[in-house]
Design brief:
It is globular and about 50 Å long. By secondary structure, the protein is of the alpha/beta class. It has nine helices and eight strands. The protein has helices spanning 18-30, 43-59, 87-95, 120-143, 155-163, 179-187, 204-212, 242-253, 257-272, and strands at 3-5, 33-38, 64-69, 101-110, 147-152, 171-172, 191-194, 218-220. It has an eight-stranded parallel sheet with strand order 1-2-3-4-5-6-7-8. The chain has one domain (3-257, 267-272): Alpha-Beta Barrel (TIM Barrel). The structure holds zinc ion. Zinc ion binds at residues 7, 9, 39, 106, 223.
């Protein structure tokens, strides 16, 4: 069995020291994880991310480590406003010639609980997230690279943005929308990735979406170090635990674990334009 974890922040200090990142890489290999995509969060940590990925490649050669660079919507409000003006340019320079970089992100919209209370401040925060997303869209459309999208309580706004112009097939990470939104995204050529929420007993919404997504659009991820699968809590999440997400997806869709592994890995390779050795 070969699995592809399409979203794991194993580069972060809060995941663990470089030695801990390395041992998590070995445990991932033992659990059948063949590839891991490490998403970016903000410009200040991009070079540390690329350095951590290089160290993991050198030390854990049996796992393919891929990277993406972008600005997470949850940190947009903490960054200096001037960053928005030349973000597309900055991103283009940062990704230029980076070996193993396969996507732009993570980026997107988060209109969840961290927004300011209703009023002008909330509207400004939303507008800024949209502007930052637009910079990522611009780079993705110019380079043809897929986007790694985060979306919380903003699916209508995100869909509008994605459908406004041809956009490379992209990944909706840790999908929390309805089956109808999943359907609209898949029709537009995008992929839907499921994480630990699927392992929570009685989690109706992610399970309904996971049952509805066409097989050719399904992906899996851990979102490490967050979203630990239900049976492993309160442990810190790591790529090896992807097997729990795959098992939950197999159960929801009524098919063998091996079939889910095969199809999700093939889908990840297709959307990210990579091949496994
Ligand atoms: Zn993430």
């Amino acid at each position: 069995m070969r699995l592809f974890d399409t979203h794991a922040h194993i580069d972060l200090p809060r995941f663990g020291t470089p030695a801990e990142q390395r041992s998590a890489g070995f445990r991932a290999r033992s659990a059948g994880i063949a590839a891991i995509l490490i998403p970016g969060i903000e410009p200040g940590t991009w070079s540390a991310l690329l350095g951590a990925a290089n160290a993991l490649r050198a030390n854990v050669p049996d796992v393919c480590f891929h990277t993406a660079l972008g600005v997470h919507p949850q940190v947009v409000g903490d960054l200096p406003a001037k960053i928005d003006q030349d973000l597309a340019q900055r991103l283009s320079v940062a990704i230029d010639g980076v070996a193993g970089l396969v996507a732009i992100g993570e980026c997107g919209l988060d209109f969840g609980r961290d927004l300011p209370p209703p009023g002008p401040a909330r509207e400004a925060a939303r507008a800024r997230q949209l502007a930052v997303l637009d910079a990522h869209l611009e780079v993705a459309r110019r380079t043809g690279l897929p986007l790694l999208l985060h979306c919380v309580r903003a699916h209508a706004a995100l869909l509008e943005r994605l459908l406004a112009a041809p956009t490379p097939p992209s990944i909706l990470h840790s999908f929390s929308g309805s089956p109808e939104v999943a359907d609209a995204l898949c029709r537009a050529g995008h992929y839907i990735s499921f994480a630990g929420a699927l392992t929570i007993p009685g989690a109706r919404r992610p399970r309904a979406a996971a049952a509805a997504v066409p097989e050719a659009r399904l992906l899996v991820e851990t979102d490490s170090p967050d979203q630990t699968p239900f049976a492993r809590r309160p442990e810190r999440n790591e790529p090896a635990f992807l097997v729990d997400v795959v098992a939950a997806l197999a159960e929801v869709r009524g098919c063998p674990v091996e079939a889910i592994a095969e199809v999700t890995t093939a889908n990840a390779c297709r959307v990210l334009g990579v091949q496994l050795p």
